[in-house]
Specification:
This protein starts with 6 loop residues before the first helix and ends in a 6-residue tail after the last strand. The N terminus is likely disordered. By secondary structure, the protein is mainly beta. It contains 1 helix and 7 strands, in the order H-E-E-E-E-E-E-E.
Length: about 120
């Protein structure tokens, strides 16, 4: 799942108001999460799956997140998937590179039991 800064604010609101589905894009692949409720109190706020069935999706148990994207790049990101499911989480960004204006991210890998497809 492409998690962004601010999920610590959004996820409690999704839980509080019973949001069924969150759709986002930008990534150049498709991903669907199991319904989630809340997250761990760790540095990466790991989402907690509330159900893990893939044949029936019960959104009364939690919010389903979908990443939808299939075009717009010549580099396929599906080569970056892990088996078993893991997630690469940005924990901090470095100093700005004066030549490119970009800040290099620093990642940690963690298990992703919330990733369904």
């Amino acid at each position: 799942m492409a998690r962004t800064l601010g999920c610590e604010e959004w996820v409690p609101l999704f839980d509080r108001y019973g949001v069924d589905l969150v759709v986002c894009g930008h990534e150049h692949h498709y991903e669907r999460l199991h319904p989630i409720r809340g997250g761990e109190s760790n540095a990466t706020l790991t989402p907690l799956p509330a159900a893990t069935a893939t044949d029936v999706i019960d959104t009364t148990k939690g919010t389903v997140h979908m990443v939808i994207g299939g075009g717009g790049t010549s580099v396929a990101s599906n080569q970056l998937f892990f088996d078993p499911p893991q997630c690469r989480v940005i924990t901090v960004v470095g100093e700005r590179n004066p030549a490119t204006g970009k800040r290099a991210p620093k990642y940690v890998n963690e298990q992703a039991p919330w990733s369904a497809v």
